[in-house]
Amino acid sequence: MCGPLYHLLTVEDRLAAWREARRVLKPGGHVAAATISRFSSFHDGLYRDLFRYQEFRDIVTSTVVDGHHRPPEDRPFNWFTHTYFHRPEESVQEAADAGFLAPQVFAIEGSARALSDDEVEARLADPERRERLLWALRLAETEPSVLGVSSHLLTVARKGQPA
């Protein structure tokens, strides 16, 4: 599920999406669901100097508290839209509440978000550098204490076998 969870503003709607995924999944199959990190707009504000706008600082403060990213409709498109930004443990709980087994959260960008796009491309283009980069990212991709560094998260869970 890439997209629906952060556009579903209530936990009830997100659970309905998880349950529908479980319904259509084969027994023993896996689901992968993308979410946006609770701190994504914080990072965007920091990297893009959006904190110069009091209005953006207010949005980020609210988002960090309750997960709802609520930019005014008359603001720039790159401030995104009204969405729900997850804490990592929330997507794990939602998956479990929908009946999935062993949910686990992975950082998508992870600590590589600190690198410039050009640097990431250079490392990926060189096989040895790519392997070192991927090794480093794998080392921390599920570490709870650093998941918030990533703007996007992927929650993977399994549907159980029938009894």
Briefly, what is this?
Helices cover 44% and strands 15% of the residues.
Explain what this protein looks like in three dimensions.
Helix 6 packs across helix 7 (127-140). The strands form two sheets. Strands 1-5-4 form a three-stranded antiparallel sheet. The chain has a two-stranded antiparallel ribbon with strand order 2-3. It has a single domain, classed as 3-Layer(aba) Sandwich (Rossmann fold). It is built from seven helices and five strands, in the order ααβααββαβααβ. 44% of the residues lie in helices and 15% in strands. The longest helix is centred in the first third of the chain and has 14 residues, at 11-24. It is of the alpha+beta class and 163 residues long. The protein starts with a helix and ends in a 5-residue tail after the last strand.
